[in-house]
Design goal:
Elements: H1 4-8, H2 11-19, H3 26-35, H4 43-52, H5 61-91, H6 97-103, H7 112-120, H8 124-139, H9 142-149, H10 155-164, H11 170-184, H12 189-203, H13 205-216, E1 220-225, E2 231-236, H14 239-254, H15 264-276, E3 292-293, E4 300-301, E5 315-320, H16 321-324, E6 332-334, E7 338-340, H17 342-348, E8 354-359, E9 370-371, H18 378-388, E10 404-407, E11 416-417, E12 421-424, H19 426-432, E13 438-441, E14 447-450, E15 456-459, H20 485-493
Parallel strand pairs: 5-8
Antiparallel strand pairs: 1-2, 3-4, 5-6, 6-7, 9-11, 10-12, 13-14, 14-15
InterPro entries: DUF222, HNH_nuc
Protein name: DUF222 domain-containing protein
Pfam families: DUF222 (PF02720)
Length: about 500
């Protein structure tokens, strides 16, 4: 791919070689880059790609994909270099004592953001955020910055790591970083965010429980104005409550039957309005056999609304056995949502509307099922969805609850069993069967996807094993016995001033 002859003909490179006679020949430089496999992002690689991609029509499909990926890595390399320069600039602009007292350690001169903002034509706020992130990367998250400079992760992933660890002290932030970086290169940003949420809970379980308890106090319902005569009704709820409410709306919507012309989203929206405004919800198109007679008017009324699977648990929560019994504080998983703190998982594990799945800490897997019929039974469907968590396309985050079960080896050549079933969203289900695409399921649960250009990508199974190297769990303190109301009154009046407000 490297055309050194063409490169040496350029005036700019000729001047560079004349100014630096000790440089090795260009062909040796490029050979060294290629010898290591995929060239590391650098100015040399940018120069080569500039020449090689000048006429995209001369590249085949695989070379186009490789060039696109290499240019993305160069962009990451350049952004990381900029972060190092910004961090050095911030160190050269220390804050005066008053700014340090107001902003805390790591503060810079109040005018430093203005210098960067003018140079980059961005807002003062944006410049300040860049300076703060650059210092955070160089001082607390150096491995993240190294991965960025090597082109293994892009700017969106770097920002995700910084955001997820901003409330943690440097030592715990570094532990989170070390957990997620090995897989971050192969993940989408959404997958990395999910891994970060789990790692933060594992590294700081007590803090995660405290933050959830604090966040739960902020639950609310808000109405927002939209365009075209529409409005949004938005609710901030605890994750189990929100997921259960959505699942119940979905069951009611599906219970309306296939004859209902509305889409599933419109059905859910209309049912939500009916339920919250006290209207009688009924089937939109009831048959004569389902119709009932209104006692007051004598007219036929629609049959009552019936959800599909009314007795089935609304939500599954996956809890390691050691966490369920209180021996440790492992992250737990709300199927269809993601990691949740251990205290929340223990609170909901015994609730009647939840299905509890306890995992084996050694294998990190659930039990298997086997079938010889085409359509999987409900128990096998639930198992596969809890096992896969998401669509098994390498980068897709569509929930398995909203996906379709697919035979990797088509039935009847392949059995209807867990080792031959995966979850795929409708888009990637169709993609799998498109010309040039293929998927192979490995014995360990990994899926190998091959694209029409011959590039291969791996989808790893969800791993329920406990997080390693958890901090020791402090012993739980016994809750104090409740104080009788009469004793509270006596204690309050005996404090001194009877005009002070009571402590409740």
């Amino acid at each position: 791919m490297f055309d050194t002859a063409a490169l040496e003909e350029t005036d700019e490179v000729s001047r560079m070689l004349a100014d630096a006679p000790d440089w090795p020949p260009l062909d040796e430089v490029f050979d060294a880059l290629v010898a290591a496999g995929r060239p590391a992002p650098s100015g040399w690689l940018a120069l080569e790609l500039d020449l090689a991609s000048a006429d995209p029509g001369e590249l085949d499909d695989a070379e186009l994909v490789d060039a696109v990926a290499d240019l993305d890595r160069i962009a990451s390399w350049a952004a990381a270099r900029q972060s190092r320069l910004l961090a050095e600039f911030a160190r050269r602009r220390p804050a005066d004592p008053r700014d340090v007292a107001a902003q805390g350690p790591g503060a810079v001169s109040r005018w430093a953001p203005d210098e960067i903002a003018l140079a980059l034509s961005v807002s003062r706020l944006a410049a300040g955020q860049r300076l703060a992130q650059a210092r955070r990367l160089t001082e607390a998250l150096p491995a993240t910055l190294d991965a960025h400079e090597a082109g293994r992760i892009d700017a969106t992933k770097v920002r995700a790591i910084c955001d997820a660890t901003q409330h943690l002290p440097d030592d715990r932030a570094a532990r989170v970083q070390d957990r997620v970086l090995p897989a971050a290169e192969r993940q989408s940003r959404a997958q990395l965010v999910a891994a970060l949420r789990r790692a933060v809970i594992a590294v700081d379980p007590d803090g995660a429980n405290d933050r959830h308890a604090k966040a739960r106090l902020d639950r609310r319902v808000v109405v927002g104005a939209e365009t075209e005569g529409m409005a949004s009704l938005w609710a901030l709820l605890a994750a189990p409550d929100a997921l259960a409410a959505h699942q119940w709306l979905t069951r009611l919507a599906r219970g309306l039957g296939s004859e209902d012309p509305r889409g599933i989203d419109a059905r859910r929206a209309d049912l939500l309005v009916d339920l919250l405004t006290g209207r009688v919800t009924s089937r939109a198109a009831a048959t004569d056999a389902d119709a009932t007679t209104d006692a007051d008017t004598g007219s036929a009324a629609a049959a009552p609304l019936r959800p599909v699977d009314p007795g089935k648990p609304l939500v599954q929560v996956v809890v390691p056995h050691s966490t369920l019994v209180g021996a440790d504080e492992q992250p737990c998983d709300l199927v269809g949502y993601g990691p949740i703190p251990s205290d929340l998982a223990r609170q909901i594990a015994a609730d009647a509307v939840w299905k509890r799945l306890v995992t084996d800490p050694l294998s990190g897997a659930l039990l298997d099922h086997g079938r010889t019929t085409y359509r999987p039974p409900a128990a096998l469907t639930d198992f596969v969805r809890a096992r896969d968590v998401h669509c098994r396309s390498p980068l897709c985050r569509r929930r398995a609850l909203d996906s379709e079960l697919d035979h990797t080896v088509p039935f009847p050549l392949g059995p209807t069993a867990a080792h031959n079933l995966t979850d795929g969203c409708p888009l990637h289900h169709r993609e799998k069967h498109s010309p040039g695409w293929s998927v192979v399921q490995q014995p360990d649960g990994r899926l190998t996807w091959t694209t029409p250009t011959g590039h291969r990508y791996t989808s790893d199974p969800f791993d329920y094993r406990p997080e390693p190297d958890l901090p020791p769990r402090p012993p739980r303190q016994a809750r104090p016995a409740p104080v009788p109301r009469r004793q509270v009154d006596l204690d309050w009046t005996s404090r001194g001033d009877p005009h002070d407000p009571p402590p409740f």
